[in-house]
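RECORD TYPE: inverse folding
INPUT: structure tokens
STRUCTURE:
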């Protein structure tokens, strides 16, 4: 079974990868591959693919953590991703705010590392985490991050 497909989205092609149970283990933003339809996605991957299409078309989207395979991530990263998953569209948090909310106020850099290694961006919306004085970083690039945040209606101070 081919455990990957590339989706054509409003912001460019995105590749979705899933494990043998159908749980999404990777979302590759702005892939270089031409979009190709998958034969039949397993239900969890189909739900994530549907949410990505809706999200990037500017429509409300629901991503369920149960549809994701985060088992390769550290326990701290999974804790960060669980909190991050609940940040609503149009809102942002700083790395420091997220660390403090997790009860680890000195762990802003560790939160940043978790963001940099997030295997499932969009489903775990790391684009909603910003630096205290700017955008911070993003796997898909800062232009993509700006476009996502603008699409969600987020206001950025100083941007």
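DESIGNED SEQUENCE:
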């Amino acid at each position: 079974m081919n455990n990957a497909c590339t989706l054509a989205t409003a912001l460019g092609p995105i590749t979705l990868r899933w494990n043998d149970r159908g749980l999404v283990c990777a979302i590759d933003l702005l892939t270089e591959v031409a979009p190709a339809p998958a034969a039949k996605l397993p239900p969890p991957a189909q739900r994530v693919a549907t949410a990505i299409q809706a999200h990037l078309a500017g429509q409300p989207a629901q991503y369920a953590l149960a549809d994701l395979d985060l088992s390769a991530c550290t326990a701290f990263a999974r804790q960060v991703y669980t909190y991050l998953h609940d940040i609503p569209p149009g809102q942002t948090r700083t790395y420091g705010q997220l660390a403090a909310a997790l009860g680890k106020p000195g762990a802003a850099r560790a939160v940043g590392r978790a963001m940099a290694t997030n295997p499932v961006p969009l489903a775990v919306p790391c684009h909603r985490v910003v630096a205290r004085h700017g955008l911070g970083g993003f796997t898909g690039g800062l232009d993509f991050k700006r476009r996502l945040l603008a699409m969600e209606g987020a206001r950025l101070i100083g941007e």
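NOTES: The two ends are 44 Å apart (CA to CA).
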